[in-house]
Amino acid sequence: MNSLSINDFHTMPNDFPDLDVYAVVGNPIAHSKSPVIHQRFAEQAKQKMHYGRIQAELGDFAKVAKSFFAAGGMGLNITIPFKLDAQAFAEVLTPRAQLAGAVNTLYRQNSQIFGDNTDGAGLVRDLLAQGLQLRGARILLLGAGGAARGAMGPLLEQSPKQLIIANRSSAKANDLAQLFGGLAKTNGVELASSTLNELEDPKKGHTPFELVINATAAGLSGESPLSAQAADNIFIPSSFAYEMVYGKSTAFMQQALQRGARVSDGLGMLVEQAADAFLIWRGAKLNLMIDPRSVLAKLRHSCD
Ligand code: ATR
């Protein structure tokens, strides 16, 4: 059970002298599922820890994070809108945080604050757990903002055949394709960029994709980034449509379902990125004790 109260919006380590204290920082943060996810991992791995929520005011991230670590806090997760502030706050960035251009996990090591990013790894783990074959697949990534960038490295490392980045504005999609050109080459991936409008044109060679990931913010405002024409070109019944947003069936998911494709929301990505953060903080060996898929199943059950 989630026994957190409103006071936990300001979790500070001094409030829990006998426990290792972690928290998620965001704004808003009231509905974050991270505390309940980490509480379940802690139970599974028999860890004495508390994981709370902190709502920081815009512009206050560094102040909040500094006082949290100064009071003995062990680690933070960071969510919207502070992932860039967290990157600036970290004294050392892991290679994948550098590649992602954002930080969602902070921890202290050898008296330095490290910044990592587990979002893309969480996405890939969720896709693999759902039975997707990523090696050799043709993947369409919708969006070229922070969420898309975080997914790029881990997706390319799976050696798909092709990865097309499609964005509303072409400049950002081109930039992302350029940034990841080297990694794509190393992994033998055909990487290209497109505009969303170009997806409507069959002459552009955009035949159906095995995996389409919506990393745009369109779902939040009830829209799909795809026109009906583009959806017709992209989805076939063997396609898999992955929506990074969770907790609702978005317009993007509906378009895919209407064309017979399989769909998933991003709740599994949330749980898997949390699992990765938990293992960074508490030790990779605990991998044998935690079961993210059972945590996900319980979470889905409690949302029904
Ligand atoms: P995030 O960190 O969530 O990725 P972001 O960096 O602001 O947020 O990026 C938002 C992404 O969603 C961008 O790719 C944006 O497209 P543009 O670069 O053209 O702005 C995309 N986006 C937002 N609303 C959209 C909509 N209604 N239709 C299509 N794309 C949308």
Give the tally of structural domains: 2
Net shape: globular
* Backbone CA Rg: 19 Å
Instruction: Please tally the β strands and state the result.
Output: 12
User: At the third CATH level, what is the topology name of the largest domain?
Assistant: Rossmann fold
Order of H and E elements: EHEHEHEHEEHEHEHHEEHEHEHH
Instruction: Please give the order of strands in the largest beta sheet.
Output: 2-1-3-5-6-4
Number of helices: 12
Q: What is the CA–CA distance across the termini?
A: 16 Å
Q: Could you walk me through the main structural features you see in this protein, from its secondary elements to its overall organization?
A:
- The chain is α/β, with parallel strands linked by helices and 304 residues long.
- It folds into two domains: 6-117 and 268-303, Rossmann fold, CATH 3.40.50.10860; 121-265, NAD(P)-binding Rossmann-like Domain (Rossmann fold).
- 38% of the residues lie in helices and 19% in strands.
- It has twelve helices and twelve strands.
- The chain has helices at residues 34-44, 61-70, 83-89, 95-100, 119-129, 146-156, 170-179, 181-186, 228-234, 251-258, 267-282, 292-303; strands at 20-26, 49-55, 75-78, 92-93, 105-109, 112-116, 138-142, 162-167, 190-195, 211-214, 240-243, 262-264.
- It has a six-stranded mixed β-sheet with strand order 2-1-3-5-6-4, sandwiched between helices.
- Strand 7, helix 6 and strand 8 (162-167) form a beta-alpha-beta unit.
- Helix 5 (119-129) packs across helix 11 (267-282) and helix 11 packs across helix 12 (292-303).
- It starts with 19 loop residues before the first strand and ends with a helix.
- The site of 2'-monophosphoadenosine-5'-diphosphate (ATR) has 15 residues, from helix 6.
